[in-house]
DNA sequence: GTAATTTCTAAACCTAACTTTAGGTCAAGG
DNA sequence: CCTTGACCTAAAGTTAGGTTTAGAAATTAC
């Protein structure tokens, strides 16, 4: 095996802890773009290790794969990303995280005065305030709370 | 219509903003237990409005339906829950929320020093610390990060 | 009393993020 | 050379949390 043949999907899986099937799925979603060797097998660059790590961390933070892809697409195309590139990505990312935390905290602070009181079933309750609704929607349910189609 | 016939599923839907189908689904998941009238239609108590509100709020906080059900099961069985009952539920709930917020905050604080540095791809990175892994798993993926079957 | 709403059930469909399966190919070791 | 393990693709299955559909029965409204 030559020096710069790249990593096999199995090697990447072992190093990241991801399942091989998950890595293939991420490729299908456009999160990584391996090349193929003569036999048609995927070969990855070492910088893909970092891409996948970023994906895993971002998922812990509750971001969806399309959102993560959007962040990754901001990395330079032609060359291997530098630390500075990653730091740039990290910044916008951190801002979105701050929002999430703030929303959760605000909701929590409302909770004490709300669940014990009589307002819980009212549409006027602070917890139903439209500005609070962006929180933690996650995957699955489509028409939750303020998120219905309407028109 | 008599005075205490209970609420129809449509009335409950209008008052909570939930879809009728969602309310039926919640019944199937054991979150509410309506009785049936002579014609076989569901009838709800007014306290079910509060139960459903609790469900909606808990979902915003990122709890799953089984988790929410577990909380609701702690309400008294024979009688209509009082404010004190709800306040009790709220307490354990708040503790779990505090954990979530703390985890997210800790992760965020690690992010700055981590994404820009060389550790991102290492299993020793603070973001991969097992104590941090409980955060934000959400629905869907089963074997994410520390969550694989192993044995 | 009849038409228009609601409601009923059961089953199929939906998205996200993967895994599993089936059937075949590639690569490395002895 | 041949076997074993890693890899390939395409398609179907899985979970959570619902929605949609279809056909029938109950209520309500006029």
Topology, pairings included?
The structure is a homodimer.
Chain A (H helix, E strand, L loop, with lengths): L8 H8 L3 H9 L6 E2 L5 E2 L3 H14 L4 H8 L10 H33 L36
Antiparallel strand pairs in A: 1-2
Helix pairs in contact in A: 3-4
Chain A binds a DNA duplex (30 and 30 nucleotides) through helix 2.
Q: Which blocks of ≥5 consecutive residues of chain A have pLDDT under 50? A: 128-151
Quaternary arrangement of the chains shown?
homodimer
Shape of chain A: elongated
Order of helices and strands of chain A: HHEEHHH
Tally the beta strands of chain A: 2
Largest interface: A-B, 53 and 53 residues
Describe the fold and architecture.
- Two copies of one chain form a homodimer.
- With 151 residues, chain A is mainly alpha-helical.
- Chain A is built from five helices and two strands.
- Chain A has a two-stranded antiparallel ribbon.
- In chain A, α3 crosses α4.
- The C terminus of chain A is likely disordered.
- At the A-B interface, α3 and α5 of A face α3 and α5 of B.
- The structure holds a DNA duplex (30 and 30 nucleotides).
């Amino acid at each position: 095996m030559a020096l710069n043949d790249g990593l096999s999907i199995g090697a990447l899986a072992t190093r990241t802890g991801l399942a091989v099937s998950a890595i293939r799925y991420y490729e299908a979603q456009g999160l990584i773009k391996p090349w193929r060797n003569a036999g048609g097998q995927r070969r990855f660059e070492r910088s893909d290790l970092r891409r996948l790590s970023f994906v895993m961390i971002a998922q812990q933070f509750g971001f969806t794969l399309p959102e993560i892809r959007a962040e990754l697409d901001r990395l330079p195309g032609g060359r291997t990303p530098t630390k500075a590139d990653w730091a740039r990505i990290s910044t916008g990312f951190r801002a979105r995280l701050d929002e999430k935390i703030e929303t959760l905290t605000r909701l929590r602070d409302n909770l004490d005065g709300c669940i014990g009181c009589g307002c819980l079933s009212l549409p006027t309750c602070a917890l139903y305030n439209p500005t609070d609704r962006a929180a933690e929607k996650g995957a699955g349910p489509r028409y939750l709370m303020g998120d219905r189609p309407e028109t």
